[in-house]
Amino acid sequence: MNYKNKISVVSKYAFLLALSLTVVSCNPDEEQTVVTFTNLVWQDNFSTDGAPSASSWTYDIGDGTAQGIPGWGNNELQYYTDRPENVVVEDGMLKITAIQEPYMGAGYTSAKILTKGLFEQTYGRFEARIKLPWGQGLWPAFWMLGDDSGDSVVWPQIGEIDIMENRGDQPTVTHGSVHGPGYSGGTAVTKSYELTDGRFDTEFHVFGIEWGPNYINYYVDDVLYNQITPADVTGEWVFNNNPFYMILNVAVGGSFSGNPNANTVFPQTMYVDYVRVYSRD
Fold first, then answer.
1. Which of 127, 165, 194, 210 does the annotation list as catalytic?
2. Is residue 13 predicted with pLDDT exceeding 90?
């Protein structure tokens, strides 16, 4: 992994500062461009019980075989469903639950929801307030993919922005990454952020990015912990002028998290309080 020591703190609520700033990080040789995005353009507060809103979310169903990528390309073990046992809105939040059970040839079920074909945007602030599941082999994520509606452009050329990924046995650590041509999978450009007080599975935290031309800033709550620019990647920068859609899921097993073990307790649920997208004024 290519970790960068670019750490700074800004308030995402500095709504009056709708302008570009240059923030000097703790390393005097590094600078970060920070832009405040204040115009709310899309949100889901999960206020209506039942299935996720069909006007906002669709589903990936299965184990990836029908899509030509068994195990979803990562040796994952779950079968994604749209059943309320795996994905439901209740108590004012979205709940995605991974269950250990035999189902359609898999040993686990879970859910993966997307805004693909319903909402996509180029640039802006994308954030979600989430409480994570816990346990070896769990892989919760909040991430984005570039528009892949055409047949000629496929991953990783379309680009992938991982706003939040977590290994379930590391409840204080989250990861933010980008994948593109020449820097995908195990060679993604990545940095981790570790809580010094608290855990991601026992309390809610806000995970977000602020994305503009030639940069992506990564946040946990009010902490700007990384910026990725074209200078950081080893191939083509594919994050300019291309709309991306959002994804929320909980995978089980796979190349990132490893597989569950005898100490992994099921079911495990990821709770999402809200998802919001802003643009610049």
1. 165
2. no
pLDDT, position 281: 73
Q: Is 124:246 a contact under the CB 8 Å cutoff?
A: no
Catalytic residue among 85, 160, 194, 236: 160
Catalytic site includes residue 31: no
> Using 50, 70 and 90 to split pLDDT, how confident is the model at 30?
very low
Structure tokens at 72: 């979803």
∠ CA 59-117-154, nearest 5°, is 85
Asked if 101 is an active-site residue, the reply is no
pLDDT at residue 199 greater than cutoff 80: yes
Q: Please write the tens of the pLDDT for every residue from 211-233.
A: 999 999 999 998 999 999 999 99
Tell me the mean pLDDT in the region 50-72. 97
Q: Are 103 and 254 in contact (CB under 8 A)?
A: no
Residues 132, 202: Cα–Cα separation, whole Å: 8
CA distance 41 to 23: 26
